[in-house]
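Researcher: Re-running this chain for the archive, since the previous output was lost when a drive failed. Same request as before.
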Amino acid sequence: MNLALKRGAEVAAMLMIGDGLIGMLQPKRHIPLWRSDFPPLRAVVRQFDGKPLIRRRLAGLAQVAIGLAMAAPLHRRG
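Model: Regenerated structure tokens:
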């Protein structure tokens, strides 16, 4: 993978990790910030409306795990 692609993938992983952490730590504040009239985004955010905080936090944890999994292969030597 060339350097530009690695950098792009690293940025995507960092965004996933950061967004997941904020979602885990401050779900009541974070979810409302993402409400939108843009149909795909509205569909994603709607899944969390009225859900227990534990479910929102588990989604954040999953997002962190996905971000870490995305970043891991970028640092392998080869």
